[in-house]
Amino acid sequence: IGSIFEYVNQRPVFGIISPDNVVYAPLLGFFVFTGVPTS
Q: CA nearest 32: which of 8, 15, 18, 16?
């Protein structure tokens, strides 16, 4: 399960960063760009 799945489901990254956090989208973009899974 990767960042795309979490983004679509609006789930917190690492259970710490909520979808409404200002760094949520950029962090998702970073993981997508680097290919690092967030699960």
A: 8
The per-residue pLDDT for range 1-39, each reduced to its tens digit, is 455 655 666 655 555 555 566 666 777 777 777 665 544
Residue 7, both tokens: 């983004």
13 DSSP 8-state letter: B
Give the contacts of 8 (CB within 8 A, at least 6 positions apart). Answer: none
The reply to whether the predicted model has a pTM over 0.85 is no
CB-CB contact of 1 with 14 (8 Å): no
- Tell me, rounded to whole angstroms, the distance of Cα 3 from its chain centroid: 5
What are the extents of the domains in the chain?
A: 3-34
